[in-house]
Amino acid sequence: MQSKSIDALIIGAGIAGLYQLYQLREAGMSVQCVDAAEDIGGTWHWNCYPGARLDSPSYTYQYWFSQELLDEWQWSERFPGQAEIKRYLHYVADKFDLRDRVQLNTRIASAHWDESAARWVVTSEAGQVWRARYLISCVGMLSAPKLPPFAGHDQFKGDIVHTARWPQQGIDLTGKRVGVVGTGATGIQVIQTIASQVAQLTVFQRTPQYAVKMNNYPLTGAQGDYWRSRHKQFAESLPNTFGGFEWDLPELGWATSLSVKERRQWLEECWADGSLKMWVGTFPEVLFDEKINEEVSIFAREKIRAAIDDPLLADKLIPTSFGFGTYRVPLENGYYAAYARDNVELVDVSESPIERFTENGLLVAGREYPLDVLIMATGFDAGTGSLTAMDVRGRDQLSLRELWSRDIRSTLGLQVHGFPNLFTIAGPLAPSTAFCNMTTCLQQQVEWVSDAINYISSNAIASMEPTKERQDRWVEHHDEVANATLLANTNGWYTGGNIVGKPRRLLSYIGGVGTYRQLCADIAASGYQGFTLRAQ
Questions:
Q1: In a domain? residue 172
Q2: I need a surface site. Which of 10, 252, 275, 445 has the fewest CB within 10 A?
Q3: Do 346 and 437 belong to one domain?
Q4: Same domain membership, residue 392 and residue 526
Q5: In this structure, are 412 and 497 located in the same domain?
Q6: Among residues 44, 32, 2, which one has the least CA distance to residue 103?
Q7: Is residue 349 a contact partner of residue 204, using CB atoms and an 8 Å limit?
C-alpha cells in the first residue's frame, strides 16, 4: 500500500488528541488524527458503563482556548455523566471542523523511525502507511484494560465485559445475576448504579477504598452563572495550582500553624465539599507524613463508618492497610448504601482469591457464585500500556516496549531519549499520568508540544529528542520527589504494581502541576537546552 506523507500523525481522538489536532492545523500543518474507536471521545467513548461520571468539577474540565466555546457550552451539573462529556467533545469537533482530519476504526500496529529521512513510518493494522515528521501519542494514561488471568474463562456460559470496553449499545442487566470484580473508582460507580436493577449483585473486593461522598448539584440559574463568571480566572489559575483544580493547598502548615480543632474544622469543610478537594486540597503533609496521614485516615474512616449500618460490613469496607490518599480517592453517591440491599453480597477476595471460572460463575474458597454477567472493573496497564501495545522503534531500532519493560523512563513525560520527534501526551512521569485534573494538564502539554514543533519547523531543525543526561536528571528529580511521599509505597496502578513484571516507579510526577508547568516553560524559554536538535 502506498504511503502518505504528512507533517504530523496524532494517535487518539480524545481530549488531548482533538486539541492537538486543532493546534497543529491552526499552525498550517498537514495533520492526521487516528483512533481505534468508531467514534471520537477517547476515554469518554470507551467508558460508557453504567454510572460513568466525571469526578472533576465540570466548570474546570473544559477547553480554555476559545471564549466563544466557553460562552456557548453550559454544563448541566457539577459532575456530569459520560454521555454529556461525549456530547461536549462532539460539539467541539463540529464547531472547529475537526472531523475531516480524524480517521476512526484505525488501530496502529507499528511506528518506526527512519533516520535517513527524519520521519516516522507508521502502519495501521489494516496496512495503511503514513510517513510523518512528528508522531504525537494521545492514547491516554488509562486506556489499556487489565484482564485478570482467572482460569477457565472459556468455560463460563455467561457474559464477561470490561468496563473500559463496554458495548456502545449497552447491556440489559435487569433481573440478572451480576458479579463485579474491582472496587476502585469505576467499580464504585457501576455498583451504586446497577444495585437496584439486577436480581443479585455479588461484589468481589480485594482492596476497600476511602470513598468521599459526592456533592453533585445542577449548574442552572445563579449557580451556573457564578461558575461561568470565573472562566477567565480559571484559565489563568488552574495551571498554577497543585492539582489543576479551582482550589489549591493551603499555605498554613498542618502541625505548626493549626490546632487540633482547626484541623478538624478544615477536614470537615473539605469533606463537605464532596469533591477531590478532600484528596488534593487539604494539606501537602498528608501525602508525606505518616502521622498526619493517619489522622486524616481516621477522620475518613469515621465518615465512612457513619454511612454503614452494619458494623461487620463496615469493617470489610473500610481500609486499614493503607493511608488516605495513597491510592486514587473515588467519589461515591450511594455506594455504601447499596450494601444494605438484600440482593447485594460482598465477597472478600483479599485472603481467598478468585480461583477460577466455572460454567455458571466464579469459584472462591470452594464456593461457587452463580452469575449471568461478570463485570471486570479491574483497571489498566496505566501510563505505558497503550504505547507498548504498538511496535514503536526509535533510533537504531530501539524498542519502546523493551525499554519500558526494563525501566520506565521519560523526560517530563513528553519525550523519550532515543525516539526523535515522538511526543507523548500524558506519558509516564508527568502529572497528567495520574495526579492532575486531566484537562488542565493535557492542555498544558499539548501547548508545549505545539510550541516545540513550531520551533523545530521554523528553525530548519530535522528532529528533537532529550539527551540521555537531560532524561537522567528528570528521572532523578521525579524519583526524589516521589520517594519522599507515601504514594511510592502503594502497591497499585500508581506504581505499576497491578501488572506482573512491570518495573516499579511512581508513574505520575507529584511535584505539583504549577511547578511542572514552570519547568516546561523554562525549557522552552532556554531554546530547549538539554535536547538534541539536529539540523536538516
A1: yes
A2: 252
A3: no
A4: yes
A5: yes
A6: 32
A7: yes
Mark whether 104 and 172 lie in a shared domain. no
pLDDT (average), residues 144-150? 71
pLDDT in tens, 22-33: 999 999 999 999
For every residue of 169-183, DSSP letters joined together read: T----TT-EEEEE--
Place of cell 457539577: 78
The CA angle 227-231-234, to the nearest 5 degrees, is 100
CATH assignment at residue 413 = 3.50.50.60
Taking only the tens place, the pLDDT of each residue in 309-340 is 999 999 999 999 999 999 889 999 999 999 99
In a domain, 20, yes or no: yes
> Which residue, 186, 217, 218, is CA-closest to 203?
186
- The grid coordinates listed for 442 are 493535557
For 135-170, give the DSSP string.
Answer: EEE---SS-SB-----BTGGG--SEEEEGGG--TT-
Same-domain status, 406 and 531: yes
Whether 337 and 310 have beta carbons less than 8 Å apart is answered as no
Indicate the residue among 359, 379, 399 that finishes a domain. Answer: 379
Of 188-197, 250-259, 527-536, minimum mean pLDDT range: 250-259
Q: Binning pLDDT at 50, 70 and 90, where does residue 501 land? A: confident
In the DSSP assignment, the letter for residue 214 is P
Separation of alpha carbons 527 and 532, rounded Å:
11
| Cα–Cα distance measured from residue 252 to residue 264, given in angstroms and rounded to the nearest whole number | 14
Is 401 part of a structural domain of the chain? Answer: yes
Nearest to 307, CA basis, from 318, 319, 320: 318
Distance, in Å, from the CA atom of 287 to the CA atom of 512, rounded to the nearest integer, reads 12
Residues 96 and 201 in one domain: no
**Surface-to-core class of residue 392, CB atoms within 10 Å of its CB (0-12 exposed, 13-18 middle, 19+ buried):** buried
Quote the CA–CA distance of 240 and 234 in Å, as a whole number: 10
| Residues 6+ positions from 172 with CB-CB distance below 8 Å | none
Q: Residue 92 corresponds to which amino acid?
A: V
C-alpha cell read off for 373: 454477567
**Lowest-confidence range among 19-28, 133-142, 442-451?**
133-142
Which amino acid, 53?
Answer: R
Identify the three-state secondary structure at position 364. Answer: strand
Residues 6+ apart with CB under 8 A from 311: none
Same domain, 193 and 111: no
> Which domain range does residue 93 map to?
4-144+381-535
Q: Angle at CA 6, nearest 5°, toward 390 and 528?
A: 80
Q: In this structure, are 102 and 176 located in the same domain?
A: no
pTM: 0.95
Q: What is the C-alpha separation between 427 and 382, in angstroms, rounded?
A: 10
Q: What length is written for the chain?
A: 536
- Does residue 34 fall inside a structural domain? yes
Cell of 248: 489549591
State the alpha helices, DSSP H only, in 37-124. 43-46, 67-72, 82-95
- Helix 15-26 × helix 438-458 angle, to 10°: 30
Q: What is the total count of domains within the chain? A: 2
User: Side by side, which strands form the sheet with 177-181?
Assistant: 159-162, 373-376, 177-181, 200-205, 344-348
